[in-house]
Design brief:
The strands form two sheets. An eight-stranded mixed β-sheet has the order 3-2-6-7-8-9-1-10. The N and C termini lie far apart (50 Å). The protein is globular, with a radius of gyration of 21 Å. Helix content is 30%, strand content 22%. The chain has one domain. Strand 8 and strand 9 form a beta hairpin. The chain is an alpha+beta fold. It binds iron/sulfur cluster (SF4) (2 copies). One iron/sulfur cluster binds next to helix 10.
């Protein structure tokens, strides 16, 4: 027997979670756009739109304090932010390209240095994924091994059904727990028919072939060609569910302030600027090359994973029209 939930009960689930003090994050209207943001009620959930930025900020906020300091007559007081205080969180309505990203990022955040800020939020987060029934020209998840109906990374996975409502698949124990905690919201139903899943257009990319070209072409005129237009704005990294570079700076005054961790982007001119003034990536082609190499070679070499879920956000966001899928297609034909 299949578990199903109506849209009304999905919204009621959000209301109940909020009422018991859980932080619920989901697609929500933010001015003229949709973003994954904390929801105050089920009525705020936007279904059927891919948020402008990814869901990664539920684990890895755009900017956060990691400690604060104050100099008094008695000395300097330093107070670390305590990650054990982070709230239990449920992300509702994560698209497969967003739900899959934390499983890719876990590798780097738990590698040589264990990032307790990321890992504690990750441990406390349950992801309710949602299959896509529509997509646009920028989506290419099927080219990087995912699909619009891929439950990977979700704890509970929802598939829209013909006639309304969603089939619910508990993918992990966290998903089972959610089903068990709110049995009144889920119904046993005979297998209902799912709405047809979205079909991203475009050719499937040969990632092995791309990787093999990248292995031998650190120096190649193509890098200058494709990045000639790149404005170095960093938008591609900021909307990406898989980009994870950050900077740490002290802010405040001489006697009081805080240490902050903020997103950074390899497209920025000063990203690799050394204190000496030397910059090993002193031109945009070197920076754009790093973006592609990191996602499709270095991360694969180190962790056996591709650092891209094919969400297409960087294509939609790029002010000069650089299309990563087209770049990869060009490389795959070399
Ligand atoms: S590189 Fe572009 S398409 Fe790939 S996950 Fe990041 S934003 Fe999405
Ligand atoms: S969004 Fe486009 S212009 Fe901006 S850094 Fe990325 S590739 Fe360059």
């Amino acid at each position: 027997m299949q578990k199903t939930i109506t849209e009304q009960n999905l919204r009621a689930l959000i209301d109940l979670l909020v009422k018991k003090g859980t932080r619920v994050v989901g697609p929500r209207r933010a001015g003229s756009i949709t973003l994954y943001e904390p929801l105050a009620s089920g009525g705020e959930l936007i279904l059927g739109e891919l948020p402008r930025r990814s869901a990664k900020e539920a684990f890895f906020p755009l900017c956060e304090n990691i400690l604060s300091f104050e100099k008094t007559t008695e000395g300097v007081k330093v107070a670390d932010v305590d990650p054990s205080q982070f709230p239990e969180t449920v992300i509702v309505g994560a698209r497969p390209c967003d739900a899959a990203a934390p499983g890719i990022l876990d590798a780097v955040f738990s590698w040589d240095y264990k990032d307790k800020f990321y890992l504690e939020r990750r441990r406390k987060t349950t992801i309710i994924g949602l299959a896509c029934t529509s997509c646009d020209d920028a989506c290419f998840c099927t080219s990087v091994g995912l699909s619009p109906a891929d439950p990977r990374g979700s704890d509970l996975f929802l598939t829209p059904l013909e006639g309304g409502g969603y089939a619910c698949e508990a993918v992990t124990e966290k998903g089972e727990k959610l089903l068990a905690e709110f049995p009144q919201l889920f119904t046993d139903a005979e297998a209902a028919k799912a709405l047809p899943q979205a079909e991203p257009a475009g050719e499937k990319l040969d990632l092995a072939r791309i990787k093999s070209w990248l292995d031998g072409n650190f120096e190649n005129p193509l890098w200058a060609e494709i990045s000639e237009r790149c404005a170095g704005c960093g938008a591609c990294a900021f909307v990406c569910p898989a980009c994870h570079c950050f900077d740490i700076v002290d802010e405040g005054g001489e006697t009081k302030g805080c240490r902050r961790k903020s997103w950074d982007a390899c497209g920025f001119g000063k990203f690799t600027n050394h204190a000496s003034g030397h910059n090993p990536r002193d031109a945009q082609p070197k920076r754009y090359r790093n973006r592609i190499m990191h996602k499709f070679k270095y991360y694969d070499d180190k962790f056996g994973k591709t650092l891209c879920t094919g969400c297409g956000r960087c294509i939609r966001a790029c002010p000069v029209g650089i299309d990563i899928a087209a770049v990869l297609e060009e490389i795959s034909k070399k």
